[in-house]
């Protein structure tokens, strides 16, 4: 992933990697090394990541359209 990738490009690539075909607007990314888990925003979110041992990491988070209710999606897979 290029460091100048947009937020939408990063989310789309993460969803594709896990074979999740869902609405991009339901997901957001956070810096894995930031204890506040603030949403990464802006034109180039990867440029603002915290580095630990020279590496960056992000979490892909789900944003429920209705915060009063929720559901769990289970995707089959094989660890291997």
UniProtKB/TrEMBL annotation:
This is Diacylglycerol kinase. The gene is Dgkq_3. It comes from Trichonephila clavata (Joro spider). The lineage of its organism: Eukaryota, Metazoa, Ecdysozoa, Arthropoda, Chelicerata. One of its GO terms (molecular function) is kinase activity. It comes from the Eukaryota. Keywords: Kinase, Transferase.
